[in-house]
Design brief:
This protein is of the alpha/beta class and 309 residues long. The chain is built from 13 helices and twelve strands. Strands 3-2-1-4-5-6-10 form a seven-stranded parallel beta sheet, sandwiched between helices. It has a three-stranded mixed beta sheet with strand order 7-9-11. Strands 8-12 form a two-stranded parallel ribbon.
């Protein structure tokens, strides 16, 4: 029987990966820093073992990974810590995988692709990151590939879904649920791509359970592109929400950055709201099968219901 470990299990994609593995009857250890949150999310699931630990402590990682076959890496840290700590985090995970003879399934973003010039990017598109964070992500990818650990690297667009906090759409939805005036990050007329986290979880679990998928990169697109106006219209139809939704501009984030180091880091990635990177998923569909794709209306309905409950 396959045994798995999910790092960052209390986050949006990590939570959905744990739920997906459990739904297939696969034993999974859910690893995150806060035990109370892990217990709230998974205590009633007989397929899930909870492990509260720190990804920067090798003894915690090694203990949680003992005997597992696949480690899913979905843990993340604040932007302002990336330069100093993200290489250490990945180094710890790689060392743990080597020591335990485990495979890696890595949840990655689209930063390493850089600007896309309006074209869909596939796995052979040259990665020419122009931001510091994009360069860090590309270096981490190279580190994984040079380690000799069998790894699947899956690129995802921005998340939304149950328990997906600290995301762009969550920023809008949290005030909708409270029936307060809300805000949308970026020009509402520009079509962007978002992935429903349960869809992303299904896709990466399919990859991780397929031996032929290792040693490769995979693009996992969302349902389709959608504008902010279309998203807000759908949200209003689902909820009856009538409050205003204003726009968060780059200058607003830049101003907030004068007082908040996290906001200063967000400015660098704002280009994704102006020149969206859209993923081509043809490779997955040809080699693995149909991509899991939940329409935005249904995905938003489930997300909002989770937030209310």
């Amino acid at each position: 029987m396959v045994k798995t470990l999910v790092l960052g299990a209390s986050g949006g994609m990590g939570y959905s990966i744990v739920k997906e593995l459990s739904s297939r009857g696969i034993a999974v250890t859910a690893f995150a820093r806060t035990r109370n949150k892990l217990e709230k999310l998974f205590a009633k699931d007989p397929n899930v073992t909870i492990y509260a630990g720190d990804v920067f402590k090798m003894e915690d990682l090694q203990a949680a990974a003992r005997g597992v076959d696949i480690i899913f890496q979905s843990a993340n840290i604040p932007y302002q810590e990336w330069d100093q700590n993200l290489p250490t985090l990945m180094g710890n995970i790689i060392k743990t995988a080597q020591d335990q003879s485990a495979k890696l399934a890595i949840i990655d973003n689209i930063y390493a692709y850089g600007r896309s010039a309006g074209k869909k990017v596939n796995e052979t598109t040259p990665k020419v990151p122009h931001t510091r964070k994009g360069k860090i992500r590309l270096q981490l990818e190279k580190t994984v590939k040079q380690s000799g650990v069998p790894a699947v690297i899956a690129h995802f667009p921005d998340f939304y879904g149950p328990n997906a906090e600290n995301t762009i759409l969550q920023y809008t939805l949290q005030n909708v649920v409270k029936n307060k005036k809300s805000m949308f990050v970026g020009d509402k007329s520009i079509a962007r791509e978002f992935i429903f986290t349960p869809d992303g979880a299904k896709a990466i679990v399919n990859l991780a359970l397929n031996d032929q998928a290792y040693g490769q990169n995979w693009n996992i697109p969302g349902y389709d592109v959608i504008t902010g106006k279309e998203l807000i219209k759908t949200i209003r139809q689902l909820t009856g929400y009538e409050k205003g939704v204003s726009t968060v501009t780059k200058n607003m984030i830049r101003l907030l950055g004068l007082f908040n180091s996290g906001m200063r880091e967000v400015v660098e990635m704002y280009y994704l709201n102006e020149e969206p990177v859209v993923l081509n998923g043809e490779k997955y569909e040809k080699q693995i099968g149909p991509l899991p794709r939940t329409p935005y209306r249904e995905g938003l309905k489930q997300t909002l219901a989770h937030m209310k409950n």
